[in-house]
Structure prediction request, 405 residues.
Amino acid sequence: MKQLIQKLGPGLLFAGAAIGVSHLVQSTRSGADFGFSLLWALLLVHLVKYPFFQFGPRYASATGENLLEGYRKLGNGILKIYGILTFLTMFTIQSAVTIVTAGIATSLFGNFISVKIWTVIILGLCFIILNIGKYKLLDVLMKVIIITLTLTTLAATLMAFYNFNSTIKIAQYIPQGSIEITFLIAFMGWMPAPLDVSVWQSIWTIEKNKTSVNKLDTKTALLDFNIGYMGTVLLGICFVSLGALTMHGTGTSFSNSAGVFSVELIEIYTESLGSWAYLIIGVAAFTTMFSTTLTTLDASPRSMNKTIELIFKKPFKKGYLGWSLTLILGTLIIYFYFLSDMGRLIKVATILSFLTAPFYALANYTLICSKYTPKQWRPSSFMHVLSCFGILFLICFSGWYLTIL
Prediction:
């Protein structure tokens, strides 16, 4: 068991990146507004996205290359499209997750420090962790964070069920009208994560094998991923349940201000579950968002640096550092001067992620089925069917949304 835990890493980093805004904000709002009636959407999107996320560690462990190196083999055009899409979305994504983390920090540690100052502190702390400890420290920290997050969230959910005195209604519902459908798209856009996180996981898989004596073979890499992925499903259900059991039917509406939202969220949970729950909910919320802020600040610079190196066919020694500083600066500019409204920021980021999902799904599926993947690690018949269904679903759903804009 100890040896298995030491081998785990990229799958937990995936969970850390995934369990963030999609769970704490969108899943809680889903439960508060719709009860348990959108569980179908949560489970369906996990199913249709599963193959494309799994292809990241599958390809990396089977070939010793990350997905970006695979994209280059398919053609520089795919690699360039990836670079453009990542550059256009990474600042908004980082801003969205950081502002929520800062809001929770303000609520948890006291509002004597403003959300803006907390934003700077959190980005600075993450930068120090990633540039001093590098991947090894990130790997260790994420194991502690994910265990803490899982235990506190499960404890809060069990107590919510224990204190709930009404009948639980599980009838499912399909949203109607542009407002509800827009929420559904945003909910599914980051559930469990944007599909470009598959690229991040392939990079983390390679980094794990570079820095650890416990190398990940393909079977272990897939086990590691499945553990992380099932964790995102479980905690997604937990946050929907918390929203449904403590807020649904109360007329609760959340503020779009990060600081106010985090106070409202923790206070509502505390009022429903009891004052004892304040610390548990606070720790669960903060670890949820800090893990996402930390992993996204690591992965986006890694992926952009690797993309530029592959396009220009030469290494950039300080590339990771340069992209880290660029991402931090861009995040602060967006937050301070353009989109400080948390609600709008999250909606823009999640919808952009959903609309770009078909590209990543097609690219990953094409690569894993190509001659560049060893035959024994290409998809099974079931995974072929599930992949084709997933691609069709993502294209049709994105098209449906565009028709109602």
